Amino acid sequence: MKSTHVLSAVAIAAALSGTTALAQDGEGLRIGYIVNYATHEWYQNVILGMEQRAEQLGHTVEVIDANLDMARQVAAAEDFMAREMDVIIMTPVNEEGVVPILRRARADGVPIVLEGNPAPGMQTVVAICDYDTGYLAGVAAGEALGADAEGIRVMNVGLPLLSATILRSRGFMDGLQTVIPSAEMVHDLDGGGNPDRSQEVSAAALAADSDIDVIYGINDSSALGALQAWRAAGLPEDDLMVVGTGAEGLAFLNEMQTEGPYQLEAAMFPEKIGFTAIDTAVALFNGEEVPEYVISPTTALTLGEVSSYYSYDGESREIQWDAVNALEAPEQCMMYASDL
């Protein structure tokens, strides 16, 4: 992927600083967001970021939940297009399933911004660098374990349905092995991205082989589900490291506060994703040149670092925008879905 097709979220925000032409004219945009799974903490915070940014710019956001059903996502897109929404933002239920939607939208002149996962025929996607996110978490895990560690065995709780999550898992192992070359993936599981499925497949894997040093989850639900399986099996936690991904909501914060095995979080800042998706949607509608990939920053956090990015009182959290906005997104990702 050439860097000319990539722009950071910071650059998009800078290009849209101040009010838009539409806001100046008093005509706010009608933006439709088709979320793939609205009950998930990650998407609830993405929506929060969208709503806050839309309100700042004088636009409105309407949300339809596909609830992990591709047919419902198609129906939602058809509904938004029939009602002539100005822009559509969509988190794909699966990448191939949204291709006909993108094709029809392009033919009808409807701008669409994808969130999270790229798909063939897209105009633009707002996303993190998934491989880089996993890689940096892997390096941090290796450094925490120590370069002289030997025989490190990893259980990956992944989601092979999506290229983005495949990239995270691959990045984590590659990053870990740069510090501890002998580290190996013992279990490579499909946790479905949800805690119940992750707990189920992890329990089965641990029953077969529980000699595990590190659990990596492609999202917080995966990591937490696997940790629940570990605890249900009565396994010792003293030498276990759990690494989550997302900083999706309160669940990872609650667990990290216990100072147990959940020691690292690859933070993806969903509020920032939602904020940037609105900026990108406005730019696309206004006919501005928008890159194929708009990159949002990530970083690996320990418990001591979390408070710099989120204030937290046990029942709610608040993103610290100055700290998050100070993070630099890479000019381009180390690896893309097309590289798989």
From TrEMBL:
Gene Ontology MF terms: carbohydrate binding
Keyword Repeat: no
Keyword tags: Signal
UniProt xrefs under SUPFAM superfamilies: Periplasmic binding protein-like I
UniProt-listed InterPro entries: Peripla_BP_I (IPR028082), SBP_2_dom (IPR025997)
Domain Periplasmic binding protein: 31-289
Location of this chain's protein in the cell: Cell envelope
The organism's place on the tree of life at top rank: Bacteria
Any GO CC annotation of this UniProt entry: cell envelope
Signal peptide range in chain numbering: 1-23
UniProt KW Transmembrane helix keyword: no
Similarity section: Belongs to the bacterial solute-binding protein 2 family.
Protein name: D-ribose-binding periplasmic protein
Lineage, uppermost ranks: Bacteria, Pseudomonadati, Pseudomonadota, Alphaproteobacteria, Rhodobacterales
